[in-house]
Fold this sequence. Notes:
Blueprint: E1 3-9, E2 12-18, H1 21-30, H2 34-46, H3 57-74, H4 83-87, H5 95-123
Antiparallel strand pairs: 1-2
Helix pairs in contact: 1-3, 2-3, 3-5
Amino acid sequence: xxxxxxxxxxxxxxxxxxxxxxxxxxxxxxxxxxxxxxxxxxxxxxxxxxxxxxxxxxxxxxxxxxxxxxxxxxxxxxxxxxxxxxxxxxxxxxxxxxxxxxxxxxxxxxxxxxxxxxxxxxxxxx
Length: 126
């Protein structure tokens, strides 16, 4: 079951979607593992604040790629086919405002999947 949430970026409501398809879409588009990238990004952002940010370019790119995939997954017809064109529609795109919301969305998706497995086990008497 997919979880969807609108996040306001630069005054624009942008739908984002988390589901089991996101890791595959991310891997196909960027040839990277979203779980490893998410973990490294959370660690990197956790050390910084918006006022004293010293994030490296790779962390920013990973964040932009994750946001792009989750937005493209939510509204494929409204999101361009490459991340650069997607980002061009915004004047600002703060990692410190958006990333926590994407992490929450991802967490809700993972939580839903775990509950589903438990319910299936209960229904099948395993």
